[in-house]
Amino acid sequence: MTATPLVAQRKRGAALEDAIREAAYAELTEVGYAQFSVEAVAARARTGKASIYRRWPTKQALVMDSLCAWLPTAQQCGFEGDYKNLSTADALRQIARTITKVLASPAGAAMRAVKLEATADPELAREIDDRFQAPRRAAMLALLQRGVERGEVRPEAVTPLVADVLPAVLMHRVILQRERITERDITAIIEQILIPLVEVR
Amino acid sequence: MTATPLVAQRKRGAALEDAIREAAYAELTEVGYAQFSVEAVAARARTGKASIYRRWPTKQALVMDSLCAWLPTAQQCGFEGDYKNLSTADALRQIARTITKVLASPAGAAMRAVKLEATADPELAREIDDRFQAPRRAAMLALLQRGVERGEVRPEAVTPLVADVLPAVLMHRVILQRERITERDITAIIEQILIPLVEVR
DNA sequence: CGATTAGTGCACGCTTGCGTTCCTTAAGCG
DNA sequence: CGCTTAAGGAACGCAAGCGTGCACTAATCG
Fold it and tell me: Does the A13-70 domain belong in CATH 1.10.10.60?
């Protein structure tokens, strides 16, 4: 037909499914898990609930599928940056920026919604762990190991516990203290905590 | 009357109010904020919703009042322990045990319910901050300062940022990694993170 | 003992949301 | 163009919970 109707034209098949997953992800990152509703997703995707329930059996299945589709991968998050020619201090600053950026992004909001609100759904939590925590720890360990090779990091500091300090401190600030992290904060954290913790003495 | 009726005798006045607050606190720590309902509280307190709504205008008001009544104070939490004759390492181990114990207690569950689930209620969050985070940071700063006086801690390590590392790491483990903290974990955290971070070199 | 105060239990009106049903309309294909 | 497939919109049954109202019952007091 030549005349565009007032209402948006209907999507079908894969295009509709993509729109629904995107709408679900956007809804989750904006309102959290507790306020997430299939009705709101349908409205945002400009579709009907019947079309959603034809594809996904439950609300939880929809959330899961939309996270699989839309959460950035570890590579997209950029935890494994190019730290080769950087000092350990600069590399730490860089990965702190990366983690902070992820925390401030929709992915960070989705992570909080799932890990902190949807506590009864271990499958959702596992998806977050696979996308964020495991790759981030691996990247931190690799960064610390390079620091050892450069003579800047104590070998004893290359442990999973130490690797978790930076994300722990950043998340403590964001989640429990509700504070925005600035470049100055990052500098302070690296200089007052990370460097004293790992440097050779 | 001499014969005890099958149903519990009715409470009145302050006794009833205390029972309601206690039931509300127990409900919150056991099921979290999202699953918290006034109906469940009424059942647990063996009363009716009408008696609750006669006293508290809203569900949030009831939660707030029960937290005020039942959350332990900073002193009861024991953050400000007797660290005077302990080495910094032992004092840190002690406060780590205290924080871990609080996290594992109903107070810890209430804290998570409020800070992580009831995100739309800043008043509730402030109550938690006042009871836990501010006194805990103050206790840590005092502990670190004593370490400086004993010659065990670098003066530059006595900062709020450094004071938050231990709770941040413990909470990261409990909340995001869903892991129970053992005495061995505490020892590892103190030896691999806290001591290297603060010790004189 | 009677009056007053207060609590319990139940039903309610209302709201919200999950998941389902169905009719109408749009899209695609032969 | 007609048929088939699929989507949208509305209404629904149901469940759950917030907050209210009320009748009945228990507790307290003079």
Answer: yes
